[in-house]
């Protein structure tokens, strides 16, 4: 009875559940690759299970006739298809080019994004918690190393020489 009471009153722990992967990039590459192949295999099996239904729908919608017309009749060319396919191809290409040219003409010379005002150096310095003098030095330098305090506020900087 005492053991039963201990297990009944035990609270669930908030420990890490090892079945959940929180940071997959920290797993070994071989393990990630192996589980990737396992996942791919199961997805393939899942799609394999759908194959009979897809075949039935294709047959109902005329897929069998399309198969017969395209692959079973060997060495018979339909003149309509020989002429129509290149015409359709050229029409699609011309339509795409016309659409692109229309958009280029429509948006030419216009800035599509609203301009934003630049923040002043004093606003940047205030938001960083730095002095105006340090902000001016940072603006004039090309490459710097910032020296920060324990609250991540810039105290100073060292300019680096670029080669």
UniProtKB/TrEMBL annotation:
Membrane spanning stretches: 34-60, 80-102
Pfam families named in the record: PgaD
Keyword terms: Membrane, Transmembrane, Transmembrane helix
Record flagged with keyword Transmembrane helix: yes
Swiss-Prot/TrEMBL GO biological process terms: cell adhesion involved in single-species biofilm formation
Superkingdom, taxonomy of origin: Bacteria
Record's protein name: Poly-beta-1,6-N-acetyl-D-glucosamine biosynthesis protein PgaD
Organism this protein belongs to: Stenotrophomonas lactitubi
């Amino acid at each position: 009875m005492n053991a039963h009471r201990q297990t009944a009153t035990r609270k669930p722990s908030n420990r890490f559940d090892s079945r959940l992967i929180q940071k997959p990039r920290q797993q070994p590459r071989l393990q990630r690759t192996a589980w990737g192949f396992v996942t791919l295999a199961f997805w393939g099996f899942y799609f394999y299970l759908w194959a009979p239904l897809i075949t039935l729908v294709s047959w109902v919608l005329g897929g069998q006739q399309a198969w017969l017309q395209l692959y079973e009749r060997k060495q018979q060319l339909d003149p309509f298809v020989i002429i129509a396919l290149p015409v359709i191809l050229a029409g699609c290409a011309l339509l795409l080019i016309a659409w692109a040219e229309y958009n280029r003409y429509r948006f030419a010379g216009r800035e599509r994004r609203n301009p934003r005002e630049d923040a002043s150096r004093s606003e940047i310095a205030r938001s960083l918690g730095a002095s105006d003098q340090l902000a001016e030095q940072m603006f004039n330098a090309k490459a710097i190393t910032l020296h920060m305090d324990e609250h991540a506020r810039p105290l100073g900087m060292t300019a680096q020489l670029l080669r």
